[in-house]
Amino acid sequence: MKIFALTIAATLVWCCCNGADDGQFEKLGIRFTADTVVWNVPTNRIKTNVFSYKVVLSRFDDRLTADLLKVANLQATDRLTRDDSRFGEGAASYENAKQNRFLGIYPTSGWIYYLNRNAVESSKKAIIIVPGEEEAVELAVRQLGQLGFKREELAVDEHNKIEAVGMNQQETRLNKSTGEREKRILSRTVFLFRQKDGISFSGLGNSGGAQVEYGNFAALARLEIVWRDLKRFNRCANITKEDLLKRIKNGSAIVGSSASDHFKSLTLTDLKYHYLEYPKNTPQEMVFPYVELEAQAVSDLETNKVFLFLPLR
What we know:
Layout: E1 11-15, E2 30-31, E3 33-39, E4 51-56, H1 62-72, E5 92-95, E6 101-106, E7 111-116, H2 133-146, E8 164-174, E9 181-193, E10 195-196, E11 199-201, E12 209-214, E13 220-226, E14 229-235, H3 241-249, E15 254-256, E16 262-275, E17 286-287, E18 289-298, E19 303-305, E20 307-311
Parallel strand pairs: 1-20, 3-16, 11-16
Antiparallel strand pairs: 1-18, 2-15, 4-14, 4-17, 5-6, 6-7, 7-13, 8-9, 9-12, 10-11, 12-13, 15-20, 16-18, 18-19
């Protein structure tokens, strides 16, 4: 099991199956031009059976609600009387009397949110024991499984290992014995990605997967899941190498995280598929697949990997 560092990779994104993307891709970058585009991607990366999905109203059953209340150590009587209608049909919020544990269940967007404000200790605590990287991933997978989100519904890498991104919360304190400042990890967070048809969803935690944070002695500090209920809608038209190259060359693509809007050359090196799921509380009617291509970019300023985004209109 491996946790991947949160880093920026170079990608080209092509949204398949004609449909609106609600401007989500346009927020990712700027238009660019390229003098030459070179294809260096293994041809076996292109899939022939890719589907779009229609978002249907999620209906979290009573068993899931009961399991979530158990995880949160809350009771049905802890339900808040506030108006949660802004979160859609069936929304419910719970909080204990001390207001240090909160649970939100929002079926319309498939969103679950739990927060335990006491699970993460300050660095003043004498003993802090936080799960290691691999242990945190296994704990998160097990936690999701207990709630009905099965292991096989989680994305895996090319080695069939759970795909995960890790993030730590840490503080620095003075060791009075040595006089040196020491860093201590106070909590460890893992992001797990949803998959369907062997294709992973994009987004961290609150858009197409789960975010799980563990504090002292592996206490659950935060759990956030965005897992919309989907129904297969349509089979996408097959894409080809020629399709991708043509659209990049005609200026339809967008580049993000780049200091340049013009490249002397782009070399495409790898291709992956993903589904684009919107963040929590963002209305979404359809989920479309897109392809991700790694690209080595050469410009007047530098040579590096870049993000390219190319939706299909």
